[in-house]
Here is the input.
Amino acid sequence: MGHTSRVGGGIFGAIALAAFLMAILISSSSTASAAGIVDLGSPPPKVSKVAANSGQVVSETVLNPRSADGFWTPERLAAAKPAEMPTPADSLDIPKFASGASASAATGDFTPGNVTRFPQVVHGKIFFSVGSDTYSCSGTIIDSLNRNVIFTAGHCVFDQSTKSFVTNLIFIPGYENGNAPLGVGNAVKLFTTSQWANQGANSYDMGVVVLDQPAESFFGARQIAFDLNPKGRQYTLYGYPSRPNPPYNGEVLQGCHSAFAGRDNGGGNITPYPIAAHPCYMQQGASGGGWVTLGNYVNSVVSYGYCDSLPSSCGYIFGPYFSNAAKSLYVNAGGSPRPTVKVLKA
Here is the structure.
């Protein structure tokens, strides 16, 4: 598209993150078409907000999203570490794990196609700061009223060690090997659940980023589904894992074809218990990556795994079950299901 930035430790000019995204989002339709950008049509209508029966939504407005422009230098981007996943529960209660296997031998793992084309482009990389440290996660553009909603993990927007929202958060669609060919979006609002913010509850490890531009209008979006029965369900997970290394390095979008493998109702978890997917070997860096089912619906996000503490569990990944808390996050952040999308009940 003529707008290429080197952001992963390579050589490029001065970083002007907001300018990059503005240039992309107001570019001509012919330029957009050349990059494989998709327009999904007019915004969906408003619907009533959903009460969070499972807890209140916590939000913070990023008062000066342009502060990220001056913050992100090539050195800080290159130094960004994959966000650490939450500490797993004290015990597991899911089907017996198969013997551990190396990620390099994972069956079901794959590298998606051109990351500047739909649908790969909607699965982007997130960068943020906590104090002087920089971190990375993954996220997905979700169909919404204002066309600027990104779903990710709670630990990618709210830090448990400081009990505060992260700062300088940016989202990069089409990220690959340090390049941001489609520009960079700044966060203007961050949302998470009260259970994650106050208790660090893995069952509620969900977050939403609201961008300063309607990225969905130009890149497309995934739909979202709630209250699906997970039994027998197939998922395709996406993210930018840095671990295990090898084979992952955080620079390339990865995917894995997985299936529901039980719930984690270990000692530290609360209802609705997190769900497990297998096989999927992605760990740190993939945090917040979308679990896609029914062809185009995000139904969970990558949260945590037991691979480090229990090697026999490698290949199992866990995410929150999308029900009332996820609905509340979605609607309060500006989401609104299209008329043809039902909020499904288990």
